[in-house]
Amino acid sequence: MIELNTAELVGEPLGWAVGKALGLDLQLVPPIYGNPWRVFVKYTFEVTDRTARYNPQEDWALGGPVSEAEELTIGPSAWDWQGKCVLRRAQSDGASVYFEHANQLVASMRAVVHAKLGETVLVPKEIC
């Protein structure tokens, strides 16, 4: 495990940190068929266990509900010369710290990790 700054998390390390912040049962899947190390979550049902890819920093179906459940304040933060939003902001309810990124999911997931785990987080070195 290595320690990373929450404000700099992206990709698989961010997905891992979000899963840990939410108390999920995470697993790492080693490289296969040209894919790098990836984060999966284990779901336990009454009859069977199932694992699925866990990437809330990229997938709105996973990250959107997390943003809503954690009651984040989200919105535009900066615009380009044509008036197009180029930077998004996310902040946990009641927090004084906010996170900015070009991708709203990345900013939102960083805010969730910060609110639950703090300024730094431990992630497996394989996914960095």
Task: Kindly describe this structure.
With 128 residues, this protein is of the alpha+beta class. The chain has one domain (2-127). 27% of the residues lie in helices and 33% in strands. It contains three helices and eight strands; from the N terminus they run βαβββαβββαβ. The strands form three sheets. The chain has a three-stranded antiparallel β-sheet with strand order 2-3-4, covered by helices on one side. A hairpin with an 8-residue loop joins strand 2 (26-29) and strand 3. It is globular. The termini are close together.
- How many domains, in number, for the residues? 1
Stretches where pLDDT is under 50 for at least 5 consecutive residues are none
Number of helices: 3
N-end to C-end Cα span: 10 Å
Structural class: alpha+beta
- Tell the overall outline: globular
Got a strand count?
A: 8
On the 0-100 scale, what is the average pLDDT?
93
Biggest beta sheet attributes: 3 strands, antiparallel
Question: What proportion of the residues form beta strands (DSSP E)?
Answer: 25-35%
Question: From N to C, what is the helix and strand string?
Answer: EHEEEHEEEHE
Helix content: 25-40%
Pfam family, one: Phage_P22_NinX
Organism: Pseudomonas arcuscaelestis
Protein name: DUF2591 family protein
